[in-house]
């Protein structure tokens, strides 16, 4: 403010004594502050292809700050791994607003005019302003992103959603199904049995009714494993766009694909709560042991991020987030060999799906490639 006064002096607008100039400057302060408005919080309308990771990079400068965006939008975002076109998200950040400005003290009566100075005294921007130029009292509050730390989930919900699991023979009961692709094609011979990402489709929802925005998991049945159970393989996630009426199909979109989504595939309500386990597993000794019973996408040898099914289950106390390791057991001296072969570590995996029939784990680290049906496994670390 003092700099402005000096600039006026330079323009020949000196109006009298220094005391009169400072009093006039003080009188202008509340007008300027009164004109200030609180910044409007930024928002972003989600477009196809957006992710919280990308939005954090764009608005906050660091992709790893995506939980900050999630925390201020929990009323909109059901699952932080899924955002949908058209959703309006608040962008976190600090905003300051003026709470009160006390009126300035009455300006003193002007003193006798002083002679016009030949040049104003030099004032540097870094110098402190006189007390007479500062408002009498200004309070500000800062609205910032809540300091609440996000829960550190042990499992990614997207990996959990795509993981096969073991059910009783015949798979889940009471499921719905995909009726058909509802996209109207100009080509009469077009194949409507296959669904593409974001295709509009018709579904018969489980329990007969569905509401707009509701999510369903589409799946197909895999093999029936003897003495284990029925393998269920997710193929995609379906989002209802128009609720159904009695006796009619609901309209929906394919919003995520893990494999081929086909006409007639079954539907279950999508529930990611099983993935919401927080914390880190702690190492254990003599953990529950079992064997690999099924490999997803065999005959290709499994590698990192491959799913495997084991013959241990929730009945053994295994839970989502636990860690298992695969190994080749110790071999005693045999066939003329007078020395034993020690146990060989092969790989580790994170438990994703747990049912009373079996466990599905995803390989997260690997030293040996030959993991196959019958490979020994055991729980190496358990969640708190």
SSE diagram, text form:
Elements: H1 2-10, H2 18-34, E1 43-45, H3 52-60, H4 66-71, E2 88-90, E3 95-101, E4 138-143, H5 157-162, E5 165-167, E6 176-181, E7 194-195, E8 200-204, E9 215-225, E10 229-242, E11 250-257, E12 261-262, E13 266-269, E14 282-283, E15 289-295, E16 307-310, E17 323-328, E18 344-354, E19 359-366, E20 376-382
Q: Which labels suit this protein?
A:
single chain; 384 residues; mainly beta; Elongation Factor Tu (Ef-tu), domain 3; 4 domains; 6-stranded antiparallel barrel
Report on this model:
It is a single chain. This protein has 384 residues and is mainly β. The protein has 4 domains: 2-37 and 98-141, no CATH class; 44-90, Membrane-bound Lytic Murein Transglycosylase D, Chain A (Roll), CATH 3.10.350; 157-275, Elongation Factor Tu (Ef-tu), domain 3 (Beta Barrel); 282-382, Thrombin, subunit H, CATH 2.40.10. The protein contains 5 helices and 20 strands. The protein has a 6-stranded antiparallel β-barrel. Strands 15-16-19-18-17-20 form a 6-stranded antiparallel β-barrel. The longest helix is centred in the first third of the chain and has 17 residues, at 18-34.
CATH class of the largest domain: Mainly Beta
- Number of helical segments? 5
The radius of gyration over CA amounts to 34 Å
What is the domain tally? 4
What percent of the residues sit in helical stretches (DSSP H or I)? 10-25%
User: Based on CA inertia axes, which overall geometry fits?
Assistant: globular
Oligomer: single chain
The gist of it:
With 384 residues, the protein is mainly β. It contains 5 helices and 20 strands. Residues 1-38, 94-104 and 116-150 have low confidence and may be disordered.
